Amino acid sequence: MKRIRxxxxxxxxxxxxxxxxxxxxxxxxxxxxxxxxxRREFQQRNYQVQHQWQCQRRHAASRRxxxxxxxxxxxxxxxxxxxxPQSEPQEQQQRPLNAPSHRRALKSAKLSxxxxxxSLPSKLPLQTLARCxxxxxxxxxxxxxxxxLALLGQELLGYYTSEWLLCxxxxxxxxxxxxxxxxxxxxxxxxxxxxxWGVETVxxxxxxxxxxxxxxxxxxxxxxxxxxxxMRVKDMPQARRLGSGRRNEQWNYRxxxxxxxxxDDQFGDLQTGLSTEDRPPFPxxxxxxxxxxxxxxxxxxxxxxxxxxxxxxxxHSERDVESTVEAASASFVRALAGALxxxxxxxxxxxxxxxxxxxxxxxxxxxxxxxxxxxxxxRLCAREGFEPPVARLISETGRLSRTPVFVVGVFSxxxxxxxxxxxxxxxxxxxxxxxxxxxxxxxxxPESEIVLPSEVEGGxxxxxxxxxxxxxxxxxxx
Amino acid sequence: xPSKTSSSARILVDLLRPTPRRPTxxxxxxxxxxxxxxxxxxxxSTAAPQQSExxxxxxxxxxxxxxxxGMKAPVRTRPERPNIKINTDQRKLDDVYVNFLGKDGHKLLxxxxxxxxxxxxxxxxxxxGFNDRLAFxxxxxxxxxxxFLKSGDQxxxxxxxxxxxxxxxxxCLSGGAHDYFTHHKTIxxxxxxxxxxxxxxxxxxxxxxxDASGADLVYSQAVFAIIGALALEQGGAxxxxxxxxxxxxxxxxxxxxxxxxxxxxxxxxxxS
Lengths: 478, 272
Hints:
With about 475 residues, chain A is mostly helical. Chain A has 14 helices and five strands. Chain A: It comes from Vermiconidia calcicola.
């Protein structure tokens, strides 16, 4: 006996298609069934290149999430003249709707599943969560993208992370602090977090795409060929990144650590005004991970999307600044933190931060890089008033063999500051000094003494009793 | 040539040497505390005195006042670089703190931290500490407490996004308001109004041209460092209050604001 095929029945039960249906439709400004309007002239140049790239991408990996409207659009442009006479009503001459309306957020299964999967409070509405998933590159109108939420969330996450780092490791040197901050809340980590949460990106944004996907307009890779030229995008003569105003490329100028705090962003990186420029502090810098393995950043020399034309100042609202997947993912996570703060309060945001950011493992001792540890240790002992450090051999083996091992300890008076093993006496001494410096800089007060400043913020009877935290005078200037 | 026997003998001697009893400090487990304290006893932490029970010699100069003796060469070979006059008066510093933080502002921070917060890295080659870390934290505190309350512009096309009173105010963040309120030039102007340039300890590259030497950077870093020090020593509530009242509102941030949207959209919230 054959199974009842309900899906076949369903298709037979549909009413016949009315060919004049489109004339009866209301022209609602928020309607999602609009045909995408043709691109305007000044977008043509970029669009043709983008179209080429998107076609290549689509052929490479067939994604079923690609909106059919965009596919149709691509075919249209390929066949005919780009500009068609404007037959749509007046409001279509405005910016086309590139992202799903917030009204569709309530009907999206992906969005509700994401909300539940992250155990977000019910105070955070689905519409705001949908807004968090829309990058400014898709929709630059006020109130529709996640940019202001991401700004707020970035500050919040940065603040919570920095207070945790400073209260737990009060002696951390500033370069290590920058690197640790990036490892916890930098864009690479947040991008990894986004994929760990199971949020997928769209192949191309559009109003029909599910609101539960991360919407962004992907930037053109620098290696793509420019349409009509023989050069790559990154080699085009006007491919120049906006400067941050700092004279770093002068031959006798070196951008120091102190000035980065005020001039540059919270990771010590140059601010070029572009959201896509969130680079690691040094090549191969590790990021925090969930499983404790250290993954150094790949792609050391990736030139983040330097390309002509699309890096325009913010005031030019007609051009969308394209974005990378990593930057958009980071914006999404930051926007989510910002939205949580606004809707549900700071306690929930702190819990979110603790659950998702601080739960990740980062081996801080790998972030150090000493050039002259013996000299620095000697300066440190002099500054703190300890006896000058002396290296003594603790044990050794195989001195005359091919693989000797010397265990050297560095002593200040009778206290051993650090110990290191090496295959030569000098190496052992240097390693011991480095170990001593690390143990100084990674000092952590007892758990009972640590009270984070944000724990005594605001009202509430369940505040902890405040204890003043340790303030260290600074690291040794190398 | 030391042979194996002598090294093992040395280890034995080390083990057999009696370790002197030292007073243990049960507040902070730091091995450096337990060593013999010769001539320079000092506070290990700059936090409240009850945290450290060590004796401090009263005739010894405080840490902020002198360069550590071990870091100086006995004879100076190079001529001294010209520098601006650096304040060493505790009272003058306290006056500036009162001016900045309000009544009893000089009591909010410990003495060492007060001096540390206004000391730049260029001062004394960084030997007496500097305010980099405090400024890093203070900048994030100021940004965090700067929840700008201003209504956004009306959408010219009259399209209505999802509005909720909670996120109503966030639109003003996208205009670069955050960058304006933490910009070094504006903060530096504020610092000048509070009188900070007289007490900030730094070494400008050109003592007769302070602006070209980066005075804005140093003054704004001092402001951020004071806020950061407040956060670490007094808690987030005090630091946020000071940041709002003494830094952001004088720069133009609005004090109170009521959202224009009364009720959220009556859409059913998520039900799991």
